[in-house]
Amino acid sequence: MSEQNEQEYGPTPQSGASMAPPPPPRSVITELPSRWPKAIGIINIIFGSIGFVFGLLGVLYMIFMAKILQMTMQSQPELLAQMEEIDFSIMMGAQALASGVVGILWSIVLFSSGVMLLRRSRNARFTTMLWAVIRIFLAAAAVYLTLVNTPRWTEHLQELADQGNEMAASMTGRSNLVVGISMALLFGLPYPLFILIWFMRSKIKAECVEW
Q: What is the pTM of this model?
């Protein structure tokens, strides 16, 4: 009888014999989380920190530069009088100061977006793309200020130099329009454009929605 059962149903497993568990179905196997949020998040935190520190130093420099120069030239009345003739507000006026303050605040936004990406927050994509859009506008504003103020600054220094102002003469030629515009575009466009292109991809957008 047992031989007949083995022929019909196959051999019966022996008691105590170890049986390997069946492999899980493919639907159970989960994919590893993507690594790009961590990479871009760390980059945002680094760039945000650098932007905050250098932006703050730049604003402080614009505020206290004239006073520092006056203090260092107290022992040289002639140079102090020449310095007072120079209108530093052309390059470091209210517009430049406001641009610097906005840059500091936007560096904080970039830093925050990096933290959101590390946590895979639902608002990470929106915050990062918002930073990129505003950063491009800030770069355009920097280019505009450079185009407007640099020729005025150069002309002002040259006029004072022609009148015998040695300090103004030593400062002429230091303001290069091409260099200023190139720096504004170099630090203001490539990374924001990359951010916009990356997060506008349908695959990335769908992944961010699931966070």
A: 0.73
